Amino acid sequence: MVQTSLLPGAARPRTAAVAQWWVLTRRLVRPSLHNGELLTAVLSPALFTLGFYVPLNLVMSVYGHGLSSYAQFLMPMIVMQAVAFCGISAAFRAATDAKDGLNLRFGSMPMASTVPLAARITAALYRGAAALGSAVVSGRVIGFRFYGSAVETGGFLAFALLLALALCLGADLLGSLSKSPEATTQSLIFPQLILGMVSTGFAPARQFPSWLQGFARNQPISQFVYALRALAGDPTGNAGAVGWPVLGPALAWALGLLTVFGGAAVAVSMRRSG
């Protein structure tokens, strides 16, 4: 009788972990429909598009950008801004949970140590997917189009979500360690501004001062933009060929960030539950 009663119980932890992840994910997703998080994720790419495209389109048309339209040139940067903004939201949520003591409370419960982290990242990716969809629609309004194959278009969307995953893991890690929602979100604005503005997302590298062109051309944001631009394609053929020379550095940066941020986030979660 004892063995019979234990056998069903042996399968329960795996089932319980999935159920716990689902419950915690719903704890984060359902309020976002009413507290403005989802609305912000959807509206921010539209505002980025309006704020960047309208003032820069005429200027860049005069100085040149090399593609068929500035919308085609700018769109990858709008995507980067959208996923980065979702990373800031992920940091705010992680810092809020840490500040309120929820991580310690979850650690005292019969729950796998990584379940709360998985739930927060799932909710962040949900907002990231919504922001990516909004960015694509906003880009289409100003003239952006996918000129590559269906596989390349799928690669564009998949790579954008991979970037969202890496950035959200890093932001979640920072928020969990800082326990200060305000300080965390403010600290994340600076790298977003500096790396975003000094990149090839808004202007070609040749338009930067000569001493800054090397950094603008090779920093990770520019590598991500090059990859997204190539996957989107362009009628002029100047967006870059889809191949290892263009995609390799971007994938290396993305997988490197994913490994470092993901490993550190899991380690912090396991340490706090131990």
Question: What is the CA-atom radius of gyration, in angstroms?
Answer: 21 Å
Structural class designation: mainly alpha
What is the 3D shape?
elongated
Task: Work out the helicity level.
Answer: over 70%
Question: The biggest beta sheet, please?
Answer: none
Mean pLDDT: 88
Compact description:
The chain has 274 residues and is mainly alpha-helical. The chain has helices spanning 2-10, 12-32, 37-63, 70-99, 102-107, 115-142, 150-178, 181-197, 210-218, 220-232, 244-273. The chain is built from eleven helices and no strands.
Account of the protein in words:
80% of the residues lie in helices and 0% in strands. It is mainly α and 274 residues long. Helix 3 crosses helix 6 and helix 7 runs parallel beside helix 11. The longest helix has 30 residues. The two termini are 34 Å apart.
